[in-house]
């Protein structure tokens, strides 16, 4: 089977391509070809089958059609303008996150008009589709009410995905990712950046800034768990989903204090001393509007799994990013 | 102030125009002009101020901009392809119900770029944004999960409305209308048609067909109540809504049996004998997927009011459509 990854140049896209090569199959069928697309041409991956890399912005005319013309059996759609940029640039956010996704959905629908075609489609959504009033734990029946344009765009695409799937144009599943921690790479300016940097930097002896208080609580999964969600979603029998095609992924409900405690257990007290507390009311305000924890019962029943504690998340980071094998 | 009604040729649009003329003001400000638009040119209404009637399909290029160029202070957006047609014609449904609405929203946003402009916007949505699994009573925190393309389109427009309002491009409110009963006019082929015809026809001595069982339960309001919802929405201080700009309207939770009992009390046993029970499994199946009853607490707290029983709904019909004054 052929697999298309849209957003293949991003952190998760690259990890997904590598994981698919390693798995060699999806849904019991061997992967014969990989198409890796992004707004900048992604790096190729070492693979025994065909690998094609393409620069394609699906919000531009004809680009989604060109990707779909390759008739992939499974499509992972990860591409998006991030939250901060979608908020800063209203038109660009809607063009890329909504119109680009709709262009992809339409290209698939129209490809099916000439000869039967209904690929599996895994769409990465986000827990920021939820907004105030936020209960401490959000359950699967709770109303979606985004507080950002990015959240609105993700929510709208979930609704389109469900309708296109119900119509049989494709077989879609939307997975609402928790905040990814520990993101590899350099510190960035995302409001959520500190959730990764307060662990990532001290683990390599570098300082990090904590802009919120220790009792801030949020919902986390490692990059490794996020990739496992995507592959599990692609393998899933979507009849189990019913009409609700978007599923909140499981995660770890933890406070910043829990993160620091885990860092102390794994890397020692000295590592935690590299975290400098520098309260930033602007960041604290943004984070206060985010969902905290979930009861992700549907996802758990469907077999999605996340980490159980931050010790595990740190060990995943050490293994996957720093090549340090787990000691226990 | 100037008021624009989009969808002014429809049953509710015509009643709304008449009601606005009668009220003479919105939000304490006198209405100086009415712009009545629809895909077919609406009839004018007798009004001391300016009345303009226009045929305009807002899903066509430039049409929404032309309406917005009149800088209405309040916009009622009622125009839509109905549920059955949106299901039968996928492209037309999305073009009119989603792209048309978005074109309107974009026209307003862009009009505000040259000089400040942020009208009040009342958007009529529907309770069919809700889908399975359906609890007997749906509360305001329950997840939206449409089971039709029409429901998906309304839900998406609600999400856009909230985001555009949050951004300050306009001051929007979405009102989810119950099933309207008793709709005036001739029987139509809508699956919900019998909810009106089993009362409307017997009240004038005509037969009507009931295609479902007497215990079917649903959520109703009269046309008069629907118009009152719209006007109340236009007058409402939307700061009371918070981030959730769509509100499920109050209604009457009643069974078909309740409808028939009310008909008996108002028009006598003979009237009920005009209802012919002719079970239609196709209609029964459609109705089975519809929400039944709501706890519309937000709407009630915001001062929206519906009828308390079907006797009242029948009396409203007698007064408003047949000019028969209420006897008690």
Automatic annotation (TrEMBL), chains A, B:
<dbReference type="GO" id="GO:0016491">
    <property type="term" value="F:oxidoreductase activity"/>
</dbReference>
<dbReference type="InterPro" id="IPR001509">
    <property type="entry name" value="Epimerase_deHydtase"/>
</dbReference>
<dbReference type="Pfam" id="PF01370">
    <property type="entry name" value="Epimerase"/>
</dbReference>
<protein>
    <submittedName>
        <fullName>Nucleoside-diphosphate-sugar epimerase</fullName>
    </submittedName>
</protein>
<dbReference type="InterPro" id="IPR050005">
    <property type="entry name" value="DenD"/>
</dbReference>
<dbReference type="InterPro" id="IPR036291">
    <property type="entry name" value="NAD(P)-bd_dom_sf"/>
</dbReference>
<keyword id="KW-0521">NADP</keyword>
<feature type="domain" description="NAD-dependent epimerase/dehydratase">
    <location>
        <begin position="3"/>
        <end position="206"/>
    </location>
</feature>
<keyword id="KW-0119">Carbohydrate metabolism</keyword>
């Amino acid at each position: 089977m052929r697999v298309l990854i849209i957003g293949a140049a991003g952190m998760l896209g690259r990890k997904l391509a590598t994981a698919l090569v390693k798995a060699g199959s999806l849904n019991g069928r061997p992967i014969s070809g990989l198409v890796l697309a992004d707004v900048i041409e992604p790096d190729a991956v070492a693979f025994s089958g065909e690998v094609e890399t393409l620069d394609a912005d699906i919000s531009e005319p004809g680009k989604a059609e060109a990707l779909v013309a390759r008739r992939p059996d499974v499509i992972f759609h990860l591409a998006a303008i991030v939250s901060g940029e979608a908020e800063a640039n209203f038109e660009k956010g809607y063009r890329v996150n909504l119109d680009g996704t709709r262009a992809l959905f339409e290209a698939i629908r129209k490809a099916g008009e000439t000869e039967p075609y209904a690929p599996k489609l895994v769409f990465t959504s986000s827990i920021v589709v939820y907004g105030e009033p936020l209960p401490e734990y959000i359950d699967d029946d709770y109303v979606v009410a985004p507080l950002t344009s990015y959240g609105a765009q993700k929510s709208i695409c979930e609704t389109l995905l469900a309708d296109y799937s119900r119509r049989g144009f494709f077989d879609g599943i939307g997975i609402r990712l928790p905040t990814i921690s520990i993101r590899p790479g350099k510190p960035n300016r995302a409001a959520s950046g500190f959730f990764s940097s307060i662990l990532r930097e001290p683990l390599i002896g570098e300082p990090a800034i904590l802009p919120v208080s220790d009792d801030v609580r949020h919902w986390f999964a490692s990059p490794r768990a996020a990739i496992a969600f995507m592959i599990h979603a692609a393998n899933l029998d979507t009849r189990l989903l019913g009409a609700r095609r978007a599923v909140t992924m499981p995660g770890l409900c933890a406070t910043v204090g829990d993160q620091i405690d885990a860092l102390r257990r794994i890397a020692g007290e000295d590592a935690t001393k590299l975290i400098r507390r520098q309260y930033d009311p602007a960041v604290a305000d943004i984070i206060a509007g985010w969902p905290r924890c979930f009861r992700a019962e549907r996802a758990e029943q469907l077999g999605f799994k996340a980490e159980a504690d931050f010790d595990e998340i740190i060990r995943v980071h050490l293994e996957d990013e720093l090549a340090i094998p787990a000691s226990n």
